[in-house]
Amino acid sequence: MHAAIDLSNPETAKKLDDLAAYFLVPADVHPEDLLFSFFAMRTPGVAALDSYFSTGWGDANAITIAVKTLLPEVERPRVLEFAAGFGRVTRNFRNVAPHFDFRMSDIHAPAVKFAHDVLHVDGFKSEPRPEFVPIEQDAYDFIFALSFFSHAPDALFADWLCLLCSALRPGGVLLFTTHGEASMKKFDHLAKLYSPSTGFGYGLATDQPDIEGESYGTMVVDFDYAVRKIRKTRADIIGYRSTAWWGHQDEWVLRRSAK
C-alpha cells in the first residue's frame, strides 16, 4: 500500500496539467474521488496519475467502439454512463466521442456537480434503490455500467437490470460488467464469497463506505446466475466476453426488445 497523493503538491499539479494536455481533458481530480484514491493507494507516486488518466481514456474508447459497432445507424446516440463516479471515464467523451449526446449518473451528489461544473457533462443523482432513481424511460440508445453489478446485491440485481433496460429505447443497448469466475480465480476474497448452490456470493465490505452494504457491497456471480437475472428484463443477450475488462471482469451486452 502507498500513501495517498497530495493533489496540491507542485509536482502533482504539473503532472496533472501534462496529462490533461495529452488526453485533452480537464486536469481536475475531485478530492472525494474514491476510485482515484484506489489508484493512489496501489501505485507509487505520480505513476498513479498515469494509470488513472490512461485507463479512463482507454475505457472511454472501448465504449465508443462498442456504440459505433452496435448502433451504426444512430448518428447522434444518446449515451448514459451509470454509476460514473467522479469522472475517470466520463471526462474523456467530449474529446473521444463529441458526436454523443452524453450524460452521466452517480449516487453521490458531489460527483454529479463535479461532472457538470468541471467536466461540462450533465447528469442526475442516483439513489440506493432502483425504484427511487429519477431516470428517463425509453430515453437512451446506449447505457453502460462499469463495475456496478460487481457491487449490486442479489435482492436488487434484477431490479437494477430492469430499470436500466427500461431506460433504453427499443433496440437500445446496455453494457455492464460483473465479477465472474475469472475474478474468483484472481482474487481469493471473491472466491470465498461464492456459493455454487446459489450461483453468487455477496459481502457487505465495499469501496464506498458511505453507502450501506445492503445496497452496495461486493458481488460475484457465475454465468448461469447472470443469465437468470437477465431473463427478467425486456432484453436479449447479444454479447458476452469473459475477462473483457481490466483483465478479470466479464462483459455482458443486452439489446432491448423492439416490442
What does this molecule look like?
With 259 residues, the chain is of the alpha/beta class. It has nine helices and nine strands. It has helices at residues 10-23, 34-42, 47-70, 93-96, 109-117, 154-166, 181-186, 188-193, 223-230, and strands at 78-82, 101-106, 123-125, 140-145, 168-178, 200-203, 218-221, 235-245, 249-256. The strands form two sheets. The chain has a seven-stranded mixed sheet. A two-stranded antiparallel ribbon has the order 6-7.
- Any low-confidence stretches, pLDDT <50, length ≥5? none
**Shape from CA axes?**
globular
Structural class, from helix and strand content? Answer: alpha/beta
- Strand portion: 15-25%
Strand line-up of the largest beta sheet: 3-2-1-4-5-9-8
Number of helices: 9
The ordered H/E elements are: HHHEHEHEEHEHHEEHEE
Largest sheet: number of strands, sense, barrel closure = 7 strands, mixed
E-strand count: 9
| Mean pLDDT value | 94
Report how far apart the termini are: 51 Å
Report the radius of gyration as a whole number of Å.
Answer: 18 Å
- Give the proportion of residues in helices: 25-40%
Which characteristics define this entry?
259 residues; alpha/beta; two-stranded antiparallel sheet; 9 strands; 36% helix
